[in-house]
């Protein structure tokens, strides 16, 4: 059994140690907000927080992360995540929406570490999060807006 804290709750996963975290989250725990995109950590759709840092869950094996803390889109509820969600809606960021859980996790992580990011900060933090609909300009604008929301 692999023991993890997922979205603040201690969980045990009965998956093979070589199972990617993505599939353990989706198939074992029913947390389907984390999406499969490419399977090779190139698109960012599967991004989750592992001990507070954004990672691509398709390339992290559950046997390597026993005892860690995982936050998925379902559990991302802090002020940064709430500000990102508010800005996303206000500026109508999503189109198809498929990449959005990974985008939101990465953007909220950026704002936790860098409350007033520059365009270069945003570009670096969001690198590798692909959007088929090419809403990159709206994503950047929404991250700046979320920063303003967090300031009050």
Annotation keywords:
Ubiquitin-like (UB roll), 152 residues, DNA polymerase, domain 1, 2 domains, globular
Folded structure, characterized:
The protein is an alpha+beta fold. It has two domains: 2-71, Beta-grasp domain (Ubiquitin-like (UB roll), Roll); 79-151, DNA polymerase, domain 1. The protein contains five helices and five strands, in the order E-E-H-E-E-E-H-H-H-H. The chain has helices spanning 21-28, 79-90, 100-113, 119-126, 136-151; strands at 2-6, 9-13, 47-50, 53-56, 69-71. The chain has a five-stranded mixed sheet, sandwiched between helices. A hairpin with a 2-residue loop joins strand 1 and strand 2 (9-13). It is globular. The mean pLDDT is 96.
């Amino acid at each position: 059994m692999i023991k993890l804290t997922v979205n603040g709750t201690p969980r045990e996963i009965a998956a093979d140690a070589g199972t990617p975290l993505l599939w353990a989250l989706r198939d074992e725990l029913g947390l389907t907000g984390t999406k499969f995109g490419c399977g090779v950590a190139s698109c960012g759709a599967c991004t989750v927080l592992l001990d507070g840092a954004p990672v691509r869950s398709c390339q992290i094996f559950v046997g390597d992360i026993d005892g860690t803390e995982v936050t998925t889109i379902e559990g991302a509820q802090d002020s940064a995540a709430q500000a990102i969600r508010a800005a996303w809606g206000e500026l109508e960021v999503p189109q198809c929406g498929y990449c959005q859980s990974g985008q939101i996790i990465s953007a909220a992580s950026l704002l936790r570490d860098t409350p007033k990011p520059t365009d270069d900060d945003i570009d670096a933090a969001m690198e590798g999060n692909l959007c088929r609909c090419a809403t990159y300009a709206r994503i950047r604008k929404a991250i700046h807006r979320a920063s303003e929301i967090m300031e009050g």
